[in-house]
Structure formats: C-alpha cells, structure tokens
C-alpha cells in the first residue's frame, strides 16, 4: 500500500512521455490556408501535459490518504516533473521554432537549440527546490509545473485563437522571448506564492484567493488565453504580497 502514491506519481511521468511522443510526430499543419499552425500532435501533447499537471497536483493528497509520504516520493515527483514540465514543454518550444522558421533560407538547426534552455532551467529549478527546505509555503522562482503549463498552452491558444494570435505564437522572436523570460523566472530567487495553506484565515490566504478570482474571471473572459494571463498574474500578485517563510 505504501507504494501506491509512488505509482500514482509515475503517472505524471507516463503522461509526460506520451506528450513528448505526440509533440514530435511529423504531421502536416492544421491550417489548410497555408498559415503556420499547430499540429494534431502538439495539441494532443498539450492535453497530456494537462493530465500530468492534474496528477502532480493530486499526488500529495494520495500520499497523505495512504499515510505514505516519503523522501522517495519527493524525488520521484521531481524526476517526473523534469520530464513532464521540463523536457516536454521544451519540445513544444522546439516545434514552435521549427514551424516558425520553416521556409526561411539560411536557417538551420542552431536556430532551434535555444528551446533547450527551457528544460535546462526546469531541471535547475527542481534541483534547487530539493536542496532548499525553506520552499514549502513559498517558492524561490516560478515552480516548474506552472512554467511548463504556460508553455503547453501555446499550441492550444494558437489553434483556438485569432489569426493574429496564431501568428504571434509561431513568431520566432516571440518564442525566444518566452524561453528567456520564463526560464529566467524559474531559476530566479523571486519569492513566489505557494498554493499550500499554512493557515485557514482570510488574512493568511488573501493572495491565494485573489489569484483564484483572477483565474476564474480569466477563464470566463479569455478562454484558453487565460493560462498566460494567470501566469503573469501569478508573478504580479507574488510581487505585491512578497511571500516569505514567515508567512
């Protein structure tokens, strides 16, 4: 019974692997008009990463349910996150750059390699988290799952968005900016809100409740664009409330 939470955590890894397989499928683009767009595999991969995120969110509850929290489980969680929210989103960025540069003469594989900065930053962030025992009720840097989900939302946003939004998602300059900004936020020491509850008073959870309100309103008004909107709000709310270990 003690291994059930660990097996549940491995589902995160399974979904991450399935996402990578789907993302790297060589398929034609969705848009028959000739406009650059996401492939079926990229969309499927994004939804696999959503499933990985759900499992990642629930595995702590499962561990507490079976009273089987352990150092082994913590390590498995980080290793699974490295694949699902590091490598897999890195492959999405790689495919976005590959599609964005398609047809441009003089562009070779070297122009695609910056996508690998993201998984490197994700693994760095996870290693730092494992070594820093202060990061329980607040984080130093954006958590890897949050960064990975933000990237995973891009193909879906491109598919369901306007032509202008789709063009932005596949603009190599915009993709490079996403890589640098999100990767930089992951490896930074910026105090970031943790969604864990240390106390159950309104005052102690004002930041979390505000973030939930923003998420709900964004989902209603912006649909899939809500993901990057909430990601930006996550950073801004953290800057305003400045969480630290004394919270």
TrEMBL record:
<feature type="transmembrane region" description="Helical">
    <location>
        <begin position="209"/>
        <end position="241"/>
    </location>
</feature>
<keyword id="KW-0808">Transferase</keyword>
<protein>
    <submittedName>
        <fullName>CDP-alcohol phosphatidyltransferase family protein</fullName>
    </submittedName>
</protein>
<feature type="transmembrane region" description="Helical">
    <location>
        <begin position="109"/>
        <end position="127"/>
    </location>
</feature>
<dbReference type="InterPro" id="IPR048254">
    <property type="entry name" value="CDP_ALCOHOL_P_TRANSF_CS"/>
</dbReference>
<keyword id="KW-0472">Membrane</keyword>
<comment type="similarity">
    <text>Belongs to the CDP-alcohol phosphatidyltransferase class-I family.</text>
</comment>
<feature type="transmembrane region" description="Helical">
    <location>
        <begin position="43"/>
        <end position="66"/>
    </location>
</feature>
<dbReference type="InterPro" id="IPR043130">
    <property type="entry name" value="CDP-OH_PTrfase_TM_dom"/>
</dbReference>
<dbReference type="InterPro" id="IPR000462">
    <property type="entry name" value="CDP-OH_P_trans"/>
</dbReference>
<dbReference type="Pfam" id="PF01066">
    <property type="entry name" value="CDP-OH_P_transf"/>
</dbReference>
<feature type="transmembrane region" description="Helical">
    <location>
        <begin position="173"/>
        <end position="197"/>
    </location>
</feature>
<feature type="transmembrane region" description="Helical">
    <location>
        <begin position="139"/>
        <end position="161"/>
    </location>
</feature>
<keyword id="KW-1133">Transmembrane helix</keyword>
<keyword id="KW-0812">Transmembrane</keyword>
